[in-house]
Amino acid sequence: MSGKRPTVARVWRGRTTRERADEYEAYNFEVGIKPLIEKALGVQTFREDREGESEFVTVSYWESVEAMAAFTGGDPTAIHHLPRDAEFLLELPKAVQVLRLRHSQGDIGAEEDA
Question: InterPro entries under this entry (predicted)?
């Protein structure tokens, strides 16, 4: 993260079939995560593989709600679906969760290709 300190986190969740999870993960990183990395103070991506589906969670960290709103074009909870999301996702998310960051301890970074 840059020298600025995050005060809010934006949490997005989406699910796809287990069979398409690897393909969606690569697509989501190229088309969705890379542009987000350029704007947010930090970005973390998570994946949980279940028997028939995989859930992806993206957490981005922002200096303020205003900075997040500038990225989304106004409403910080607005969803920006990627062009192929309807093809991959089991359902299109309707909103994101916006959380105020209260406390953070330790190094929470992960290996780049963990």
Answer: Dimeric_a/b-barrel (IPR011008)
